[in-house]
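Let's do one together. I've listed all components of the complex below, 895 residues spread over two lines.
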Amino acid sequence: MEPKQLQGMLSRKFTRALAVVALFIVLAALPWLGTKSYYISFFFLMFMYVSLAEAWNVIGTTGYLSFGHASFFGLGAYTTAMLLSKLGWNPFLTAPLGGLLAGAFAFLVGYPCLRLRGPYFALITLVLNMALIVAMLNFEWTGSTVGLWLSTLPFKPATSRAVFYEVMLLLTAAILYTTYRMWNSRLGRGLVAVREDEDMAMTLGINNTRVKMQAFVLSAAMTGMVGGIYSFYRTYVHPDLMFDINISILVVLMAVFGGTRYWQGPAVGAVILTVVSDQLTQRIGSEISHIIYGLLFILVILFLPEGIMGLLGRIGRKRAPGGSQESPKSEVDKTASPPSVGLNLCAEDQNNGHQGENGVILEVRKVSKRFGGLQALSDVSFQVRKGETLGLIGPNGAGKTTLFNVITGFYKPENGNILFSNREITGLAPHEIARLGIGRTFQIVRCFPHLTALENVAVGCLYAGRAGSRSEALEQAAEILDFCGMLSKGNHPAGKLTLSEKKRLEIARALSIRPQILLLDEVFAGLNEVEVVEAAELVRRMVEERGITVIMIEHVMTAVMKCSSRLIVLDYGKVIAEGSPQEIVENPAVIEAYLGVGNA
Amino acid sequence: MPTSFEIFQALASGLLLGGVYAILGVGFGLCWGVMKVINLSHSTFALLAVYIAYWMNVSLKIDPLVSLFVSTPLFFVCGIVIYRLLIGPLAKRAEELVAASMVLTFGLAILMENAMQWAWKPDPRVLNVSYTGKAFFISRVSIPYTAVIGFAIALVTTSCIYLFLKKTYLGMAVRAVWQNKEGAALCGVNIDRVSSITFGISLATAAAAGVCLSLIFSFNPSSHLGWLIYIFLVVIFGGVGSIPGVLLAGLLIGLITNISAVFIPNAWVNMILFGILATVLLLRPTGLLGQREAR
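Okay, and this is what the predicted structure of the assembly comes out as:
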């Protein structure tokens, strides 16, 4: 790396950090510079909404929109209030306890709730919120409908306002820092993958349930802490105030307004909306200002579907048209030394090389799968030897893709076992199977459309590929893209690639988990002749240079005959033939399956 | 211990109230099913119809039942316009239509609520007509006329929608879009037209529901939020996509609310409803009679 380049980068990073620290100091000094008390209270609320919106987006960015985050806000508020009023504990110390309780509550309700998708998740969180209000209104111990009055700080009002301001500022800074770090962490990448495509995330070794739960609990805990501080600031808690559904909805609107795909989006949305609503209310009274406020939501969602940050991003891309075209090499170089040659793509033998007899790596034993009245697979048995390329062919509807789905854990078979390196993997979850080293591609090409090609591959490196850090993952991803001849497209959004590029990307992504076996589902379909030859070459190199075992479903016969050392033919869910390409071509049962009786 | 009379009274009024919940739910469910649009302003439109009925009654001395014939067609046209201006363009652009539609329609709800507050002041109002508070008796159980009228409107409206969906050509197109948008488009169904008409119908039912509500409840410009909760309850309980399911759910929820109010303190009644809703969502997200949505 050029020393100049390094220097430039360091100074840019340094300037940015300096600007952030300077802003923080200025904000922290505000109350002591004779700023009007109105503005101190206003900034307090603004910081609060910035924190809430950022905390909300930890789970919101996955597309699971919680319309009941006031539940956690209220739980935090009430925990703090109760500890203060019943035990006299200092609320600044108990606010984290409020966060802990809110997190614990999220943990309890998270598992059943996160199984629901789309509008159902939004509704159940809303219902939870309303149920908590009703429960709290009826719960004598917490003051029911009367609410609880809390003691004030032992200072003059101005001083105590300043103290609250500083505490909220600190908390906001902490939450912003946490979310920023999370966004760039393994968890952050996992959440993005879940948002883009849950099934595909699993094939990369991501435990979706766990990732979502972690995000939900973290989000709730941060929200609870903010609620704790707020209850003390208001010196009064009441169910309608602390569990207010308007808070729940306002937070969603702020995050969507700013842009949920960007880590700073919710904060930007919160700042803009608090300022706008404050100014409008001051100038033209609350009713008209609310009408304009409502209109604002309509306009923003209509014209800026990705929020303010989405708009800024678009402008930024237009200004620097070459920006997204640059080779990802530069990004990799920033973070680490050039990729080491021949980085081992294949998973190390985690099972100490127990490969079974004759090097059998995968064994399918009498597997059956039925969908209602359709017997998709019946008693399918075969073995795959290490290092071979096995072709899986058969007419449409023969059960080939079903077989892949059973091997990779997407479907559970009714009968039979699947052994990988002599280890039973039947019934394991898809992400567990991916982590053991079985990779797959999808028949209808899929990708994380909003991530770049490089990021698409890096997700798998971070999870099943066990990269230690994001920079290490990007380095590995660049190496894999290079292997697949896609490095030059590394910074393109995956959704904008051509079909043949998407297919290569799909292979690259499957390689990111360092598979021992790769299941390729019709990777040649839809490609022209030149592209088929190139793709077949890629498969050959995978097998020969990386020692990966390949099972491929294929209809392009010339390619499958050339690539595979052995073929298995499925028809109506049964294995009807097995052997070398030559034997298969001459097998009367196969000809009958393809062409019907009489033509044999 | 409540007497059997009290239980019968609760049964009767619960059933009558349930019909009104059902009609609110039918229109909302139609939108959700056909367009994948969660219309959070559905109950706000119902409230607007309430205010229109109120205003016509107070200033023009027109019976709320007559206002039904004004607001229903008005809202139908209004729905088509709103679809053309807002929902349609949104559906074309947004990737997460569910979230986007919730934000947009909530914006619409805020806008309308404050416009109503500005026009009619935030005080609670009651609509008084000659038959308010009058009732007839079956044995000792009193049946208010207003509830019967509301129930009748609800029943007629839901049946009309049901017949429209089952028997007419356009209704068939609506169901086709509901089940598979691409498939319907391939068969020559004009998705945009069907969607705009669906939205119009949905708002027209909101108008009908509003007139029923005006006869039964007192109201203020923020009443719509409370009604929205009942809409969720009914639609999820009955199943998005099933008109008979929603009707059944509306009646059941009316019954459950009123009967449990006989046995337990009023405030806890809502807890029972939320409990039911949570259970249904978790065990059977498609609702009582709902069918699995095609992916």
